[in-house]
Design brief:
Length: about 400
């Protein structure tokens, strides 16, 4: 067929769609849903990848996070990892003293994971606080103060009952007053607020900043059940690899591991966490593509059904076209063009719907930079057109095989 004939077939398809708007919409509903899913998932995954990668990299290119098991996106944690003995402050001191490539070490004591920690100020009680104990050096990891000051060496040495609050927690308790100098209750203990922190760069979209940081020794004294330590190790610039090797060697000695014993600790960098996250997102993307393909399959079956109905309705028209010289290839091209136009329009509507869904996700999570990637748009249109071609072949072939004499007799 010539270009003029293709455009003519496309015009006939558009006219058919206008005449049967509801039927056409229901026919390609599966294509619309499938394409919208591809676009929405693609935009959200792209936004998450950008946001989470920036979060992990905000720890800094010279930061090592040491814990008893690897921190990051993992599908499961073995019982052996959970049963490992915790890291200690002495381990951190040994790293600081014996690792020449390490600039500093800050311990972080986690609160008891089995307990939901709550805080109260003048009857305003907030649950599920992110409670932890640390030292002055922790602030070097990127903590920015909003009001007051951070924890000092004196606070830690004298076990002072002082606390630094996260931005959302401070806003909830002190919406219009300076929180510095006020006393709050944390798990039944009284603490004086000495400062508030800005929201950390390393925060996930939609996550509230409910941090309560206490001096390390104060935390140990008031919450004796807290035992899990994390070590934040800062390496000198351009000595990241050397620092990781040194920390690894010192910890194996400190934890008395034999040469053939596996590590009972993990050293994690920002790039490793980004890599773990992307592996998880790859699995998520595959699952979503499989789910969206179900909608496309349903839409394809609907297109094939409606095209078979169209062949039956237009049997006499096909007979007339064949009688005046139309070839089988012309008939096939005509019906395939109609199927592609139908599913192509469904794909465009699905793209628009997917774009609206990505905008909705950004409104719900303002810190999630959702964008529709080019690959998702191309994939959405290509798949919708491909569905039309694949599921339109049988109806088009059936139309092309019609005998012109029998077709002209059809009522």
């Amino acid at each position: 067929m010539s270009r003029t004939e293709v455009f003519s077939a496309a015009g006939m398809a558009l006219a058919t769609i206008r005449e049967h708007k509801m039927r056409s919409f229901l026919t390609v509903l599966g294509v619309i849903i499938g394409t919208a899913t591809v676009i929405a998932v693609g935009s959200i995954i792209t936004g998450l990848d950008s946001s989470i990668s920036n979060i992990f990299r905000s720890f800094g290119p010279t930061t090592l996070i040491v814990f008893k098991f690897q921190i990051g996106f993992r599908f499961n944690i073995s019982r052996e990892e959970m049963m490992r003995k915790p890291l200690t402050v002495e381990n951190g001191k040994a790293i600081a003293e014996r690792c020449p490539s390490v600039q500093g070490v800050s311990p972080y004591l986690f609160a008891d994971f089995r307990t939901i920690h709550n805080g109260k100020y003048k009857g305003n009680e907030i649950y599920d606080l992110d409670l932890g104990g640390t030292e002055e050096a922790y602030a070097a990891g990127g903590t920015v103060m909003k009001t007051g000051r951070f924890l000092s060496i004196a606070d830690n040495q004298h076990h002072l009952p002082v606390a630094v609050l996260g931005s959302d927690l401070a806003k909830s308790w002190f919406p219009s007053v300076d929180p510095v100098g006020k006393w709050v209750e944390i798990d039944g203990h009284q603490f004086e607020v000495i400062g508030t922190m800005e929201r950390p760069a390393a925060s996930f979209p939609g996550e509230e900043d409910r941090r309560v940081l206490l001096p390390y020794n104060t935390m140990k004294k008031m919450f004796p059940s807290a035992k899990e330590n994390m070590l934040v190790v800062i390496a000198y610039p351009d000595k990241m690899a050397a620092a990781e090797d040194e920390v690894h060697g010192v910890l194996r000695q400190e934890r008395r591991l034999k040469p053939n014993d596996p590590d009972n600790f993990a050293i994690t960098t920002a790039e490793q966490m980004v890599e773990d996250f992307r592996k998880m997102m790859a699995v998520t993307a595959i699952v979503m593509v499989v789910l969206s393909s179900i909608g496309l399959l349903v839409g394809g079956v609907g297109v094939m059904n409606i095209m078979l109905v169209s062949v039956t309705e237009r049997t006499k028209e096909i007979g007339i076209r064949k009688a005046v010289g139309a070839k089988r290839a012309d008939i096939i091209t005509q019906f395939l063009t109609e199927a592609v136009v139908l599913t192509g329009l469904g794909g465009l509507v699905g793209m628009f719907l997917g774009w609206l869904l990505s905008l909705g996700a950004q409104l719900v999570f303002p810190s999630l930079p959702t964008t529709v990637p080019l690959w998702a748009a191309i994939m959405g249109v290509s798949v919708s057109v491909g569905v039309g071609l694949f599921f339109g072949i049988w109806p088009a072939a059936k139309a092309a095989r019609l005998d012109p004499v029998e077709a002209l007799r059809y009522e």
